[in-house]
Write a structure and sequence with these properties.
Elements lengths: L3 H19 L3 H13 L11 H48 L1
Length: 98
């Protein structure tokens, strides 16, 4: 029975090798895809005026400030809740001892 492990390993290896041979060659497809992209040239157009870009920048900054304030308010609310729960627990323990 000592040779069973070696025979089992050999069978599994042969099975895996057959599976590798049957697989689709992905690397060949990737090579063709990448070579097709190398010859592709993209033309960019100027889509916005300077004023539109500045307006978008200010809008983005305002939204970022608003989101930051909302996160700070949530953090303060959670901290107040935690301190309130701790205060109630400590107060209950102190009152219970009296």
């Amino acid at each position: 029975m000592s040779g069973f492990g070696a025979l089992d390993f050999m069978n599994k290896t042969l099975k895996n090798n057959r599976g590798l041979v049957k697989k689709i060659n992905v690397f060949g497809r990737m090579k063709l895809y990448n070579s097709a992209l190398m010859n592709l040239k993209i033309k960019y157009k100027k889509a916005s005026t300077q004023e539109a870009v500045e307006r978008l920048r200010l809008q983005t900054l305002a939204e970022s400030r608003r989101n930051t304030l909302i996160q700070i308010m949530k953090l303060i609310g959670v901290l107040l809740l935690i301190f309130t729960i701790i205060g109630v627990l400590i107060g209950g323990v102190i009152i219970g001892k009296s």
